[in-house]
Write a structure and sequence with these properties.
CATH class: Alpha Beta
CATH architecture: 3-Layer(aba) Sandwich
Strand order of the largest sheet: 1-3-2-4-5-6-7
Order of helices and strands: EEHEHEHEHHHHEHEH
Largest sheet: 7 strands, mixed
Shape: globular
CATH topology: Rossmann fold
CATH superfamily: Alpha/Beta hydrolase fold, catalytic domain
Helix content: 40-55%
Structural class: alpha/beta
Amino acid sequence: MKFLSYCSIDTNKPLFIYLPGMDGSGKLLESQTNIWKNFDVRCLYIPPTQMGWEEVTQRLVTLIKDELNLNGNRKIYICGESFGACLALKLIESIPYFIYKVILINSASAFNDRPLLNLGTYITDFMSDFIYRNSTLLLLPFLGKLEAITEPEKNKLLKAMQEVPPKIVSWRLSLLQNFQYKPVQSHPNLLIVASAQDQLLPSVAEGRKLKELFPNSEMTILPNSGHCCLLENKIDLYQIINDYKQLTKSNQQLSYSSN
């Protein structure tokens, strides 16, 4: 397990750590150009091996501590998408005091609210690589709102899916099947992003559940987006984060004025 930067490192910028979905690579963040311009980005690469939540979390903690050795005075943003959002929730349990902000995008903590998805755990375990690669085409309409994604981004999504062996897909689905998290009262600033047209998971319902469990969190609903919203050409994650910053600042000002 390691961090991939995909561009030059600039330790003077805030550190943005992207925890990817099932592909485990972070390559699908590439289209979010404003994120790359304004942050020092690290994408977590999760190797195609069978690791449990605790092992993945502890390895991630070690990687973050190594980054802090480069510059421990900067703000750390953790952004977890789908599978990665579950890992972000585990990270909050372990080192909430290290993190400045956490962004959860269409959290796969809602996995068990879609009983049919549990079948995928068993089906993919018995698939050959050839059958799996061809079956990924059938999943595309569930993973993204295709009319909002350019052809190059669709091809990247398909390639990222096909590069993960079916046995590892099955293993990662089993992790989601058994996923549990503990809400903590003392947690970083939390932004929950949910797509209203997510065909894979009940992301809005899960987002509202998370907002209730984590005090002082904020939630943004993307009314016209699908599950892989960061690939959509009208979604600017940096702008979403900035809007959240302004909302947080306004809330703080309101709180101060009422005291």
